[in-house]
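User: Fold this; tokens only.

Assistant: Input:
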Amino acid sequence: MANAEAILVPELLTDVIRRVIAQNARLVISTEEIADDDDLHRMGMSSHALVAVMLGLEDELAVQFPDDVLSKETFSSIASIRDTITRLADRPS
């Protein structure tokens, strides 16, 4: 599990997201070639891979994605994933 404090540092969080995408999304392109705002679904991320990415992020960052953020849009780009995780970290427990 990555240090949960990575959530507080955007660059570290982006690195974790990229690593989890590389491990789970089964894209034909390297995550290093993907801009933060590129559409991951257009790059070939399937619904099944989206779930694998979500679960991988939950494990790595010790976060849980509540039902109200579970959408294709949440997982549409590295930036949208990062923004969602940051918002979750700011929510009161």
